[in-house]
Design goal:
GO terms for molecular function: DNA binding. One of its GO terms (biological process) is regulation of DNA-templated transcription. The relative contact order is 0.06. This protein has 12 helices and no strands. About 90% of the residues lie in helices and about 0% in strands. The longest helix is centred in the middle third of the chain and has 169 residues. The protein is mostly helical. The protein folds into 2 domains: about 220 residues; about 110 residues, Arc Repressor Mutant, subunit A.
Length: about 425
Amino acid sequence: MLKHVRERFLSKHILSATITIITLLLASDIFITYFNHQVMKENLLRQNQAENVKLAVSHAIYLIHNADLALRGYAAFGDTTYLPPLRFAIEDKDSIYHTIEQPLLDQHYPLTEFVLLKDSINSYLNECQNMKSLIEEKKYVELKKWSAQAKGYHLWLQYKRLKNHIDQFQDQVKSDARSEFDTAMQINYWIEAALLMLCVPILVLTAIFAHKQLITSQKLQQIEAQNSQLLCEQKTKLEEMVIQRTQQIQLQNHQLKEQHERIFRQKEQLAIQGEELALQFEALKQSKKEKLQAYARIIQEKTITIETIKQELEKVRKTQVWDMLTDTNFNNLLHARIHTEESWQQFKINFDAIYPNFFAKLRQQYPDVTSAEQRLAALIKLNLSSKECADTLGISIISVRKARYRLRKKLQVETSVSLEDFIQTSF
């Protein structure tokens, strides 16, 4: 069984590898054929360009011949009908230069010799214009001297040298293009031969493996038929086991459902109890908060009463004669505060009942805050105004403002946030 599976696995992968190799070879052949086609087109263009360059270079000699013939005819016969070739040579020289120069630039040909010839032709045409003027002025002696220099012949020799060099270069370009084309075609032949040599053995091997795979497939069908019968028997047993297990699971689900319902009812009862406890806690908290506010009002009222008594006694002091003992007691009364340590502790106990973490968080986050500043922060937490804080603490409003400023600085409250909002949200 294991051997058949291994052979099937190998045949499958060999077939895939065969298809992949043939596909790659065909793709390579297509690519190289396309590349060769492009090389052929490019080489044909290069050959045509080389012929066009040769033809364009041959046009340059027409400039020399036309100018020379026009000048000689005009000098011999004095007839202006011989002059148009000179005018045409001057007018056409730039277009002929461009026709020659641009292909040479494309072929990276050195233009030094061509530029020299172009300058020589331009100089010769200018001298032809001057000689035309000498003929018109009948200065034949000077014309004869110029003709004796044979500048046209020397210019023709210069042209001939350039043409030979360009022809040799263009022949080399054509030869290189033909060589590249032959190389590309040879590579294409080798690829096609390699494709043929590889495809034939691969196809033969593929046919052999396909035949083996067919035999293996038939054997596997027999094995699968046996396995199918075995699976049917196992399936029947599994179905019976599944039915039994399903019944057990249904029973367990029923038990779990009943247990879940009991837990759900218990959770509902606990939720109701929790809501009742929350209401009781909120009511207790509100009651303690009201007691704390009432306690603060009592302290405030007592402080106001003491301040009133102080003011009355101060008036009496100014109008009566007091002995030293009375004066000492009076001074003690003037400096008395209703907010003693005992009353502060009682206030703190009531305050902690409502805001249990207020003082702990304040001391933990800002350890530099003093006890007096803690009391002021607690009164601000109760939403007391500055006047109410002053009355409760037994100090002036100015002192409260200074204390608020110091507290705000220690708490590092931003200017855009009020001290009341900061204390209400932070503690």
